[in-house]
Write a structure and sequence with these properties.
Distance between the termini: 31 Å
Number of domains: 1
Radius of gyration: 16 Å
Number of strands: 6
Number of helices: 4
Order of helices and strands: EHEEHEEEHH
Shape: globular
Amino acid sequence: MPKNLRRVTGRGDLHFITFCCYQRRALLGTMRVRNLAVRILGEVRSKYGFPLVGYVIMPEHVHLLIGESRTVSPAKVVQVFKQRLSRRMRGRKRGEERQLRLRFPEEAGELRRFWQRRYYDFNVYTRRKMKEKLEYMHANPITEKLVKHPRDWPWSSWSYYATGQGPLKVDAL
């Protein structure tokens, strides 16, 4: 990623955000962890009041389509989500140790981090582009050959759009 990355906020755009687990490992590979990620996404959304238009939790990455909060930037939303999930996975409380010192057990040693440091943020400013990003996110589990139909992947906003019900209420725009 470029060093002088400039994120554009404050215009009321939607933000298509993607971030990955450390070294793109499947740290979100279990149902328990994905369920926890959805729960934490709901908590962060409640705290900061941003519109959630779409999401998908994949085994090694997350896609979000969110609006801007009145109180914090999308960067802060991503930061808090990542911190809360990684801390709960480590079973540690905030402030016990610096985050980079916390360890994740792994078969061949220990991981240094849970998340990659940066994230991708694309400003979405048209309905056509919003639909394109939603379709991309909802097709991701099929593309990765995890399921044959999006209804079979409960860790996304697809079910809410299809049935009006799902793990998290979304703000369909």
